Amino acid sequence: MKIAILGATGTAGRATTRAAHEAGHEVIALSRATGIDLHTGEGLVDALRGADAVIDTSNPFPTDAGTSLMETFHDATTRVVEACLQAGVARLVHLSICNIDDEAFDQFDYYLAKRAQEHVLASVEGLQCVVVRSAQWMEFALNPGAVTQDEEQVRVEDWLIQPIAVDEVAHVLVEAAAGPARNRQIAGPEQVRLPDLARALLAATGDQRPVLAVQPSLPALAQGVLLAPREAELLGPDVASWANSQTPAV
């Protein structure tokens, strides 16, 4: 089948593009680099024509400081839905995040924005919408959203997470596009504190900088709000196996 992937140059998008090719699908890789701008929707309908399914891995952050993140994400998802309907796409697969409905995130802009996207999808008619909620990725180990680093040390917010490798996320997204239309929640098999995940990655790649755990800006992040929900599928490698599969170039 033909699958269009939005955000194809991002971490999840690259992995999903690779997984779709490996599964034998024809892939339309879409991103700003290919002239697709979700803030306007220009060219999106034409780009999606002929696609059987769309996988949305995009993160359409605002380009205007006066526009809210929630409004931007909501409007981008609305444009994607409208484009899918106009282009005759049968199914839209949307990548989201586990536990975004938890009240701990009621003041957390990014999670509010992800909620807004799911609200758009919940009211769609004439298009199969599948939501895949993922726990944090192993690749988040050194993400600047929770990590600051210099030549001397790495400071990591003390989150308690249950990370999943992004390659596993990609395989599930492709399955969701080509298989049964059902929402899924996915996480990794092992709970770990983010500083320990960072230490495992640094050790495996020969980086000897010490890791300093620091308090997170949102206390709930240290208390388990990011762990896999009860109904989640636990997939992929544990922390040690994933870290040991990385190369020093990571």
Produce the secondary structure layout.
Layout: E1 2-6, H1 11-22, E2 26-30, H2 44-48, E3 53-56, H3 69-87, E4 91-97, H4 109-122, E5 128-134, E6 147-149, E7 154-157, E8 160-161, H5 166-178, E9 184-187, E10 192-193, H6 194-204, E11 211-214, E12 233-234, H7 239-244
Parallel strand pairs: 1-2, 1-3, 3-4, 4-5, 5-9, 7-11, 9-12
Antiparallel strand pairs: 6-7, 8-10
Helix pairs in contact: 1-5, 3-4
* Biggest sheet details: 7 strands, parallel
The proportion of residues in beta strands is: 15-25%
Helical percent range?
Answer: 25-40%
Q: Flag low-confidence runs.
A: none
- Rg calculated over all Cα atoms: 18 Å
Write the element-wise H/E pattern from the N-terminal end onward: EHEHEHEHEEEEHEEHEEH
The first-to-last residue Cα distance is 32 Å
Task: Report the strand count.
Answer: 12
Please list the strands of the largest sheet in the order they lie side by side.
2-1-3-4-5-9-12
Distinct helical segment count = 7
The structural class is alpha/beta
Which word captures the global form? globular
Mean pLDDT: 95
